[in-house]
Design a protein that fits this description.
The complex is a heterodimer of chains A (about 290) and B (about 425).
Chain A (H helix, E strand, L loop, with lengths): L1 H4 L7 E10 L5 H5 L2 H20 L4 E7 L4 E5 L15 H21 L11 H18 L5 E10 L8 H14 L2 E6 L5 H10 L3 E3 L6 H9 L3 H4 L14 E2 L6 E2 L1 E5 L5 E2 L30
Parallel strand pairs in A: 1-2, 1-4, 4-5, 5-6
Antiparallel strand pairs in A: 2-3, 7-8, 9-10
Helix pairs in contact in A: 3-4, 3-8, 5-6, 6-7
Chain B lengths: L10 H7 L5 H7 L6 H18 L9 E8 L13 H19 L4 E8 L2 E9 L2 H10 L11 H12 L7 E8 L10 H10 L2 E7 L5 H10 L3 E3 L3 H9 L15 E5 L16 E2 L13 E2 L3 E2 L6 E2 L4 E2 L6 E2 L2 H5 L12 E4 L21 E4 L6 E2 L1 H11 L3 H5 L1 H9 L20
The complex binds zinc ion (6 copies).
The site of one zinc ion has 8 residues of chain B, from loops.
GO biological process, one term (chain A): regulation of DNA-templated transcription
GO molecular function, one term (chain A): zinc ion binding
InterPro entries (chain A): TFIIH_Tfb4/GTF2H3 (IPR004600), vWFA_dom_sf (IPR036465)
Chain lengths: ~290, ~425
């Protein structure tokens, strides 16, 4: 009771970090050198522990996005591993390391062999992260504000097929006030970059793994509020225009289907997405000259 | 079963602080603390709506909705806490935010009924802020006399008659009063509404009102009388989803503008300073001269926020992700199957919550990916995420999901930074 009275405004807030780690062996950096995966893993664990070290109330979760499944590496859903009970909080750190490594080696050993490169279903892993965060927020004690963020660490290429899932994830994160941070370890990722922009997160692309942990600590460890005061890598310029569904070309004026909101660069009598037949535009807009196409 | 499952057992705190939960926390809690019977009714209604959603494919995505609020004496009754009006205003705040979140290029207007008169508080507009501000002003309104349903409907009809024919036209009435005081036969108005395909729905805060039910039946709307505040919330939020497209609604391609990047001050080579059009006639917040903003690609007028209809050339200005925000309406997640829990899975596939017979009476299975989810995730997936976590994390199922969705251009469908700043 007395403890509650002595609480300062800070103890009413908890910072939850969910790291989504791409462990897919199809990643170029992993195919070139399997040691790169252990390097990423070590950096992830060290970074996660650095987050926990910042404040006793801080929370951590680590999710692996493998080529065949998404799994929680930490915490264990039901029963935590036995770590020798030593006084002080350092036991948590060894718990994180032990759990993450044990779970991942289990996943890798039991994963089906891949015959060809498989895409990483990152948008899916992020959706699982959101459900976890939503649960933590539901379970929060009254008066405790949970500040949540999701950090994605990946060397995969972006898959446009996951576009709708990404968008659903970004809008949900925005709605729940969850910040999305992305650290790209190979190619630049334009869709994930949009997620950072929509949710107010930070996007960073590294071209080599040297100093990965230092970069993580510098760019992603400070909470989003503190970041405003730091000198961080400058934001990359993003394009705000739309691309038409018909040619994937950037347009600044287009035509939108009133039924499904698909975007086209030219008027056409039928929507190719939802097959709606449109009324020919009335007298208001000047009739487009009929171009005869051969 | 032991329960040191969580990293930390929250229970010891729960019993200490549980009773201190504020009224608002309970509101947000949605289901957990409700009276069982009503919670059941709400849950059933949700699932039924979800099932209907997956069956229809043509929706009225561009909505024009008049919200009609009874502000007569009957709204001062304290059967909803603290009063019908205050409870309504609180719920409407949430409704307005959700409405514009889920219907990104729609418009709304607010009409108030009191003392036998109808008054337009806000015109049809796509800016949530204006409505929220007007709503705020209603906290101190004098609740007097009787409402006139007919006067209100006539007022809405006058404006909705002239909105473009590809848009859906709707009126949502919140009635506290059991009676309406109308100048002439209300059936004349109802016929006119029917003629113009204006869909009228009613939420009654008291008992069933015959004329209201008749109105909704004639115009294809829905009718509901609320049982308590959580039931009210559910009824209201069900109107966030776009209604099925009216038969007479014309489908068309609408010309829209996608403004170029909003440039931050100081970056790039100094862009010219200019004034925005949206604040130019706003006395409260005068137009600031800055270099940032969205420029109409047709006439170069500048605006602070999207979406907006260009005041100079009439072009609707939006950003691509604004549109993407509503694409999920076209691909709703199928209803999960409700099962009595008997150990189908040890944990919820999505949130990792350990499932037990004591805490989880029912669990939910996605028929596409066969994964098992807890009740909270069933709701979260269908109402917020719009993505089945199993279907998008398991490669076989994911391939099927991706096949039915419009694909993203790798570089395209890009950003609108306004998204982050809308509320
Ligand atoms: Zn095109
Ligand atoms: Zn269409
Ligand atoms: Zn402005
Ligand atoms: Zn213009
Ligand atoms: Zn769950
Ligand atoms: Zn599924």
């Amino acid at each position: 009771m007395e403890k509650a009275a002595a609480e300062n405004d800070d103890s009413g807030s908890v910072s939850l970090l969910v790291i989504v780690l791409d462990t897919n062996p199809s990643q170029r950096i992993v195919r070139q050198n399997p040691d790169n995966l252990s390097q990423c893993l070590d950096a992830t664990v060290a970074f996660g522990n650095a987050h926990l070290m910042q404040k006793a109330q801080n929370k951590l979760a680590v999710i692996s996005c493998h080529h065949h499944a998404t799994d929680f590496l930490y915490p264990m859903p039901v029963k935590q591993l036995e770590v020798r009970q030593v006084d002080g909080q350092y036991e948590v750190f060894s718990l994180v390391e032990k759990t993450v490594k044990q779970r991942l080696s289990h996943i890798i050993t039991n994963a089906p062999k891949i015959t060809q490169p498989n895409e990483s279903l990152l948008a899916g892993s992020m959706s699982m992260a959101l459900c976890y965060v939503a649960r933590m927020q539901r379970n929060a004690q009254p008066g405790v504000k949970i500040h949540s963020r999701i950090l994605v660490l990946t060397g995969s290429n972006e898959c446009a097929s996951q576009y709708m899932t990404y968008m659903n994830v970004f809008f949900t994160a925005q709605k729940l006030g969850i910040v999305i941070d992305v650290c790209a370890l190979d190619k630049s990722l334009s869709l994930l970059q949009q997620g950072c922009d929509i949710t107010g997160g930070q996007y960073l692309r590294l071209t080599q793994l040297d100093g990965l942990l230092q970069y993580l600590l510098w760019v992603f460890l400070p909470d989003p509020k503190t970041r405003q005061m730091l000198v961080l890598p400058p934001p990359t310029k993003v394009d705000y225009r739309a691309a038409c569904f018909c040619h994937r070309e950037m347009i600044d004026i287009g035509y939108v289907c009133s039924v499904c909101l698909s975007i086209f660069c030219k008027f056409s009598p039928i929507c190719t997405t939802c097959h709606t037949v449109f009324k020919v535009p009335g007298p208001l807009p000047p009739k487009p000259k009929k171009k005869k196409k051969v | 079963m032991d329960h040191h499952g969580e990293e930390e057992d929250p229970k010891e705190y729960r019993w200490e602080t549980g009773y201190e939960k504020t009224w608002e926390a309970i509101k947000e809690d949605d289901d957990g603390l409700l009276d069982g019977a009503i919670a059941d009714i709400i849950q059933k209604a949700k699932r039924k709506r979800q099932a209907q959603k997956t069956m229809q494919n043509k929706l009225g995505m561009m909505r024009h909705l008049y919200l009609m609020l009874d502000c007569s004496e009957s709204m001062s009754v304290p059967d909803l806490k603290p009063t019908r009006l205050l409870c309504t205003l609180k719920l409407l705040e949430k409704f307005i935010e959700e409405f514009f979140d889920q219907n990104p290029i729609s418009q709304m207007g607010l009409i108030v009924l009191k003392g036998k008169r109808a008054e337009k508080v806000t015109e049809l507009t796509g800016t949530a802020k204006l409505h929220l501000k007007a709503l705020d002003g209603l906290h101190k309104i004098n609740l007097v006399g009787e409402p006139s349903l007919q006067n209100g409907l006539d007022l809405a009809l006058k404006t909705l008659k002239v909105v473009p024919s590809h848009a859906s036209r709707e009126v949502l009435i919140i009635m506290g009063s059991l009676t309406t005081c109308d100048p002439i036969d209300i059936n004349i108005t109802i016929d006119a509404l029917k003629q113009e395909s204006i869909r009228c729905s009613v939420i009654s805060l008291s008992a069933e009102i015959h004329v209201c039910r008749h109105l909704t039946q004639q115009t294809g709307g829905t009718y509901g009388a609320v049982l308590d505040d959580s039931h009210y919330r559910d009824q209201l939020l069900s109107h966030v989803d776009p209604p099925p497209a009216a038969q007479t609604q014309e489908n068309s391609l609408i010309k829209m503008g996608f403004p170029h990047a909003r440039q931050d001050e100081g970056k790039e080579k100094d862009p010219p300073l200019s004034m925005c059009m949206c604040h130019i006639e706003n006395a409260d917040e005068p137009s600031k001269i800055t270099s940032a903003g969205f420029h109409c690609p047709q006439c170069h007028s500048k605006y602070c926020e999207l979406p907006v209809e260009c005041q100079t050339c009439g072009l609707t200005l939006v950003s691509a992700p604004h549109l993407a925000r509503s694409y999920h309406h076209l691909f709703p997640v199928q209803n999960f199957t409700e099962l009595v829990y008997n150990g189908q899975a040890a944990i919820c596939y999505a949130c990792q919550k350990p499932l037990t017979e004591a805490t989880d009476k029912n669990v939910y299975r996605c028929e596409a990916c066969s994964q098992i989810f807890c009740l909270d995730c069933d709701i979260f997936i269908h109402e917020t995420l719009h993505t089945c976590v199993g279907c998008v994390t398991i490669p076989g199922a994911a391939a099927q999901v991706h096949a039915r969705k419009p694909q993203a251009p790798p570089m395209g469908m890009l950003l609108g930074s306004s998204l982050g700043q809308r509320f």
